[in-house]
């Protein structure tokens, strides 16, 4: 092979390796630097609030059916009303949240659309606000938006958006392992994201964490829950709902986690692409040589 061909191969190899090293540096920066920035910039009360937030798995625990809330029409209802013959997808959030909570609802709707099952027929969905100040009127507006997005005729009766007082909210949250905290200085709630699947008997069958839920997983969970079967513990990948504060110019743990995960996925994809291109180039050089 000519010295010119060898030189060209060397330059190409150097280029690919440079890109790979840059990708690895990017991964390290995405993992380390946001955490450092948060540790340095976070205000004390924010750290204290976030320490109280989490989502504990309490599989097979029975949720109290006598807990009372107001539905989106203002009617007093007990959880037992929804725990009869069908499994229930339960989510705690708050309806006026502008950060993670809408993404949880959107993620659930997107996972349910491809299902042959229909909300209100094979299962129900119950959202409970963790903010005792929220009203049935707010719940009704969020329900209307969610039902319109789901866009499946006849499903309206299966979507339930409830509000309640401190005592009922706290007891339900404790029973499903949902730990949240109110930050009075910012007038908002910090909480984890996810769904809880209940059997018709009101026992916790499965947890789904994050803001995206695989349709196949949800389908399998509903089938198992309808038979009163309890799933296994799952690994936690928690996103915490806590927003960007323009008054202090800092991102919350939620935003940093989302950015970090997205960045890592992008860089990992770039590294895989580089590796595949290197292999193709090596194979081509071997064939020609």
Describe the overall structure.
Helix 1 packs antiparallel against helix 7 (253-288). The chain has 7 helices and 12 strands. With 289 residues, the protein is an alpha+beta fold. The longest helix has 39 residues, at 3-41. Residues 28-45 and 237-255 have low confidence and may be disordered. It folds into 2 domains: 3-42 and 250-288; 54-241, Glutaredoxin (3-Layer(aba) Sandwich), CATH 3.40.30.10. The protein is 46% helix and 16% strand.
Biggest sheet strand order reads 6-5-4-10-11
Q: Please, what is the average pLDDT? A: 79
- Sheet having the most strands: 5 strands, mixed
Coarse morphology: globular
The CATH topology of the largest domain is given as Glutaredoxin
Structural class: alpha+beta
Question: What is the helix fraction of residues, given as a range?
Answer: 40-55%
Task: List the domain count as a whole number.
Answer: 2
Give start-end ranges of low-pLDDT stretches. 28-45, 237-255
Helices, by number, come to 7
CATH homologous superfamily designation of the largest domain: Glutaredoxin
N-to-C CA distance: 7 Å
The percentage of residues in β strands lies in: 15-25%
Task: Using brief descriptors, characterize the structure shown.
289 residues; alpha+beta; Glutaredoxin; 2 domains; five-stranded mixed β-sheet; globular
What is the gist of this entry?
This protein is an alpha+beta fold.
Topology:
Elements: H1 3-41, H2 44-50, E1 54-55, E2 68-70, E3 76-78, E4 88-93, H3 101-112, E5 124-129, H4 136-150, E6 159-162, H5 166-176, E7 178-179, E8 181-183, E9 188-192, E10 194-198, E11 204-209, H6 215-226, E12 240-241, H7 253-288
Helix pairs in contact: 1-7
């Amino acid at each position: 092979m000519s010295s010119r061909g060898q030189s060209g191969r060397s330059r190409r190899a150097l280029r690919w390796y440079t890109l790979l090293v840059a990708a690895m540096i990017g991964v390290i920066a995405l993992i380390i630097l946001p955490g450092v920035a948060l540790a340095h910039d976070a205000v004390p009360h924010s750290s204290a609030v976030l320490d109280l937030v989490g989502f504990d798995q309490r599989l097979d625990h029975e949720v109290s059916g006598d807990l009372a809330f107001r539905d989106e029409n203002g009617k007093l209802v007990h959880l037992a009303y929804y725990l009869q013959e069908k499994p229930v997808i339960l989510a705690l959030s708050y309806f006026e949240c502008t950060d993670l909570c809408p993404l949880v609802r959107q993620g659930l709707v997107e996972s349910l659309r491809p299902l042959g099952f229909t909300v209100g027929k094979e299962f129900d969905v119950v959202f409970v606000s963790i903010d005792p100040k929220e009203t049935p009127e707010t719940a009704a507006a969020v329900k209307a938006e969610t039902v319109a997005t789901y866009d499946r005729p006849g499903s309206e009766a299966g979507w339930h958006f409830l509000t309640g007082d401190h005592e009922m909210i706290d007891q339900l949250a404790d029973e499903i392992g949902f730990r949240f905290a109110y930050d009075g200085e910012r007038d908002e709630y910090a909480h984890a994201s996810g769904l809880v699947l209940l059997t018709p008997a009101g026992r916790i069958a499965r947890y789904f964490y994050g803001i995206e839920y695989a349709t196949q997983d949800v389908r399998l969970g509903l089938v198992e829950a309808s038979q009163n079967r309890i799933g296994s513990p799952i690994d936690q990948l928690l996103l915490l709902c806590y927003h960007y504060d323009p008054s202090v110019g800092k991102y919350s743990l939620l935003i940093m986690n989302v950015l970090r995960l997205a960045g890592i996925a992008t860089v990992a994809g770039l590294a895989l692409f580089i590796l595949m291109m290197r292999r193709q180039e090596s194979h081509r050089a071997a064939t020609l040589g």
